[in-house]
Specification:
This protein is of the alpha/beta class. Helix content is 28%, strand content 21%. The chain is built from 12 helices and 16 strands. The strands form 3 sheets. It has an 11-stranded mixed β-sheet. A two-stranded antiparallel ribbon has the order 8-9. Helix 6 crosses helix 7 and helix 10 runs antiparallel to helix 11. The chain starts with 7 loop residues before the first helix and ends with a strand.
C-alpha cells in the first residue's frame, strides 16, 4: 500500500509502503449517515488470454516453516500460500476455470481496508473480484512427456496478493514454464488459507507518529527473502511427497529456476538471487533496490544486492512514472548496474506507470467503463500506453529473457530496440 507524491522510496520497489493514512497518521472521517441506497451492480472484468500453445492448470498449497517464528505474528510459525501454474493436459471449460480470488480474499481486497482501494483507488465494494476467472483448470494433471520444465517464482508488490500477477503467470505457463506465485502473509492485503482463515495485512495498523519506514522496509525484505528461500527448499520435497497433481512433480527442473517480481517483488527477486545461488536468472519489474530514511522519503541506503551486484543474468524493467525510469535516475539501480558482473539489460516501457506491469493494466480499464474506478485514477496508475500494448510488451520481454537464460532459446528481442515494440526503450 502506498503514499502518493512522496517519491520512489515510498511508492515502489520496497514499494508502496503503507496506505495514505499510514504515513500521514490520519484516517478519513466516516461519511455522514444517510438513508440506505440500492447497491450498484458489481463490476466484472476478465484477464487477457495466455498466448502460448499449452493449456494451463493451477493448484494452491500451504507451506509451513516450523523452525521460523512469524515476524508479524508472535507465537506463530511462518506459513505461506503459493500457487502453481503449469502446462496441463487440456483446457479449462466453463466452471472448471479457477477463480482469480477466493470469495473471502476478493471481499477484503475490494473492501475499504484492501489493496484494491489503497493501492489502486477502486471504489470499495464495487468489483466482483472472486467472479473474475483465470484460464486455468484447478488441480489439473500436468502435461506429461516433455521432461522437466524451467521453474519461475513470482513475488507481488508490497500490499498486493500473489493473484495480482496471474496474467503473467498464466502466460509463462502457456509457453511451457512452471510458475510459482508466492504470497507473503501479513504483508499482502490478504491471504486465505485452505481452512478458510484469512490473514490480513498488518501494515495499515502500524501507522502513526514515530514509524520508522526504512526499518519497516528492511523487515519486509528480510521476511520476503526468507519466504522465497522456504519455497525453494519446499520445491525439492514436492518432487517426491505426493502433494502436487499428477505429473507436475516430475515437471520441476530445479536446476533451471528463475524469479520475477513487481515492485517490492522485483526487489525480492534481486535480493534472493544475491543471497541464494539456486536462482539462475531474475527480472525486476519497477522495484527499487535501496531503502529510505525513517520518514520514507529522505536518505538513500543501498541494499546488499545494489552494493554487490550479481554474477547471473538480470533484467531491469522501469516505467514512465516520474520517480522511475532507467538506472541513471535511480540510485539503487545505478549501484546495481555498476557492480553487476553477469549479463544485464535495462528497459523502460514509455507511457506506462508503476502498475502497468501487473494485472491492473488489463483489469482497471474494464472497471473504469463500469464506474468502479475513476478515469483519472486509471491514468495515474497506468499512464497513457494502451493496455493491450503494455500487456503484450511485458509478456514478450519477460518470456524472451527466461527463454534465453533458462532454455537457451534466443529470439534476439533483448539485443536492442525492436520495431515490434517501439514503446520499449533500451538504456546503455
Amino acid at each position: 500500500m502506498r503514499e502518493r507524491g512522496q517519491g520512489r522510496a515510498v511508492r515502489t520497489g520496497a514499494a508502496a509502503v503503507l496506505a495514505t493514512t499510514a504515513l500521514l497518521g490520519v484516517a478519513a472521517a466516516p461519511a455522514a449517515a444517510s438513508a440506505p441506497a440500492a447497491a450498484p451492480r458489481q463490476a466484472q472484468a476478465a484477464l487477457p488470454q495466455p498466448t502460448g500453445p499449452y493449456a494451463v492448470g493451477t493448484t494452491a498449497l500451504r507451506l509451513t516453516d516450523p523452525g521460523r517464528p512469524d515476524p508479524w505474528k508472535p507465537g506463530r510459525v511462518r506459513e505461506l500460500m503459493v500457487s502453481f501454474w503449469y502446462p496441463a493436459t487440456r483446457p479449462a471449460h466453463g466452471g472448471e476455470r479457477a477463480r482469480y480470488m477466493e470469495p473471502r480474499a476478493g471481499e477484503h481486497f475490494g473492501g475499504p481496508d484492501g489493496a484494491g482501494v489503497f493501492n489502486y483507488r477502486t471504489e470499495p465494494g464495487r468489483t466482483d473480484w472472486s467472479g473474475v476467472r483465470t484460464h486455468a483448470r484447478r488441480d489439473a494433471p500436468a502435461l506429461p512427456g516433455a521432461g522437466p520444465r524451467p521453474v519461475v517464482l513470482y513475488s507481488a508488490g508490497l500490499g498486493d496478493p500473489r493473484t495480482w500477477g496471474t496474467g503473467l503467470a498464466e502466460d509463462l505457463a502457456s509457453r511451457g514454464y512452471v510458475v510459482v506465485t508466492v504470497d507473503h502473509p501479513y504483508d499482502a492485503s490478504e491471504v486465505v488459507f485452505p481452512d478458510g482463515t484469512r490473514a490480513d495485512s498488518v501494515l495499515p495498523g502500524m501507522a502513526g507518529p514515530g514509524l520508522d519506514v526504512g526499518a519497516l522496509l528492511r523487515k519486509v525484505m528480510r521476511t520476503r527473502v526468507d519466504d522465497t528461500r522456504l519455497v525453494l527448499d519446499e520445491l525439492a520435497a514436492l518432487r517426491t511427497d505426493g502433494r502436487l497433481p499428477a505429473a507436475l512433480a516430475a515437471s520441476l527442473d530445479l536446476d533451471r529456476i528463475g524469479m520475477a517480481g513487481h515492485s517490492a517483488g522485483g526487489f525480492t527477486a534481486a535480493q534472493t538471487m544475491h543471497d541464494d545461488p539456486r536462482i539462475k536468472a531474475g527480472v525486476n519489474l519497477d522495484g527499487q533496490l535501496h531503502f529510505p530514511g525513517p520518514n520514507g522519503r529522505d536518505g538513500v541506503f543501498l541494499s546488499s544486492v545494489a552494493q554487490d551486484g550479481l554474477d547471473r543474468p538480470f533484467l531491469l524493467m522501469g516505467t514512465g512514472s516520474e520517480d522511475s525510469g532507467d538506472y541513471h535516475h535511480q540510485p539503487g539501480w545505478d549501484a546495481f548496474w555498476q557492480h553487476t558482473r553477469g549479463w544485464k539489460a535495462d528497459l523502460t516501457l514509455t507511457g506506462s506507470r508503476h502498475a502497468s506491469y501487473t494485472d491492473a493494466e488489463a483489469l482497471l480499464p474494464q472497471l473504469a467503463r463500469q464506474g468502479a474506478i475513476s478515469p483519472e485514477a486509471v491514468r495515474d496508475e497506468l499512464g497513457e500506453i494502451g493496455p493491450d500494448r503494455a500487456v503484450l510488451a511485458t509478456r514478450a520481454y519477460v518470456a524472451s529473457f527466461f527463454d534465453r537464460w533458462l532454455r537457451g532459446h534466443d529470439d534476439h528481442l533483448l539485443d536492442g530496440p525492436s520495431p515490434r515494440f517501439p514503446e520499449m526503450r533500451f538504456e546503455q
